[in-house]
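The material for today's practical consists of a large collection of protein records. An example says more than a description, so a record of this kind follows:
***
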Amino acid sequence: MKEGGRRLRQVIQYLLPTVKEGLTTARINEKAESLIKEFGGEPSFKKVRNYCWATCLTVNDQVVHTPPTERILNKGDLLTVDIGFYYQGFHTDYATSLQIGKEKDKKIEEFLFTGKEALTKAINQAKVNNHLGGISDAIEKTICGKGFFIIKRLTGHGIGRNLHEDPFILGYLDRPKDKTLRLKEGLTLAVEVIYSTGTEEIMTEKGNNWSLVTVDHSLSACFEKTIAITNDGPVILT
């Protein structure tokens, strides 16, 4: 997984600079799949039943699982790139959100900074003998502390031989931390911060059974990294 994660980071390093105004999300997906193959992997997401793309590419109010389309990116759009890499029998997963165009809306940049900060704080809680709820608590306090909203129906997850494994990692605390799973060495997790500017409620996008959107059409973003729990602290794989 460490090697697969390293290769996925290379894919991202080559992919993100090509993302710009005027491109379709289908074209970004095409480039992503080409890079995954170039770096010796397979698209993890194509191993999900009935999903036929290498990426999920959500724009603005779209939250997760949106397949690539002929939608053209416009200046100011908020794009999330979610991508998985399958290498020698193991999966790694990664997501990031960014504004399209050189001119950045300061409010959106603050929104995105908060998500990055939440992910960093969450990963810092991923230590041997800590509780899984510590990760959830860090996400909730950071996101909600800035007045944003956790998408509670969506979670991070364990990852390894399968893309989605136990345990599910909530973005909020639903019970006392000491009542949640205790973290052990060797556990590998895809920690995700999935949040919006206006609501925690989502619905299926009209005309697209995969894509989920915010019910009030407020902006949504996602930041995700695959990590490993070790006795020396969390190791970021992607």
User: Anything to note?
Assistant: The CA atoms of residues 196 and 220 lie 4 Å apart. DSSP finds four helices and 13 strands in the chain. Residues 106-124 form the longest helix (19 residues).
